[in-house]
Amino acid sequence: MIKLVGRRSIASGTAGVLGVVNVFVLIGAVACLGSLAALLVAPNALVEATRGAGELAPAMDEGGAGLGWVMAGGLAACAFTWLTLHSLIRILRAVNDGRAFELANVGRLRAIGFALAGLQLSALALHAMAPLEEGASRFNLDLGAWLGVLVVFILAEVFRQGADMRDENQNTV
Asked: Which of 151, 68, 141, 153 is nearest to 109 (CA)?
């Protein structure tokens, strides 16, 4: 029988998978950080090395400023993604331990909300810096993603009220 929570459950399996994904996010962050460092040391060498990078090539100028902004945006996206996954893992572990409505999860959900908002803002910034194809628009608002951010903040408030009710219930004799 499939269990949703507890040892060897869907929640614990999901936490394990998210942990593995988070390792790859960290690898991406290190790659972006390394590229930024390489741009500071030898900007023209990195620009020449990435000259045949397809869509990125037009965004690169002499000195690699365009590539630097892309790498900085990628680093920000990796940081926001890492924070989201890390918080989700901690929430899943708390749920597995039967502590879903604890105040720590409220803070974790709020952190997820801010991280998702930051991820959307960094995507908007990167889209604004990308080379513009003929007939394309610089404005790219993902309404579904922003609604998701709103839902996460609402869930944080629901969890806060649940934690308050749980504490009140435990203090009632």
From this structure: 153
